[in-house]
What does this fold into?
Amino acid sequence: MSLYSNVRTDLTQDDPVEFVKANQLGGTVRVAHATFEASSQAAGTIEMFALPDGAKIVSGRVCYDALGSGTTVAVGHAAYTNSSGSAVTAANAYFKAGAASTSAQCVDCANTLALGANSEVAIDETVAGNEFVVTVTTTGTTTGTIELTMFYVVA
It folds into this structure.
């Protein structure tokens, strides 16, 4: 007995064959990358970049200097309206839970299903100014460079 993923089912088992979106098969991986330079920056949320509607998040990586004693870094998203018209509250740790940033390092984010890997951006494009903004949230007073890179495929 053969078992099939959703993509293989759509392409080989359904009659008629189903459409498969480019963010499922044959898409082009794109990158979003941003840098923030903190100089005695108070704790807060930094808007890094916006991902387009339909983006399927593949993975991410956040890198930072030793930002200071007692500091942490988390990766999440700002509030937005989803494609169903429902308000989604900001989730500061959606892609990476807050972790100490007292030493320089690079860590993965959006690297498990629970942390947003393979999630798909679905925003209501009829709402003026509505965007899916990826954020970095810090605690403590930070000084140094923070870089965030996310890889995604668009539909």
Summary: Residues 6-13 form the longest helix (8 residues). The chain has a mean pLDDT of 92. Residues 39 and 143 are 5 Å apart (CA to CA). The helical segments are 6-13.
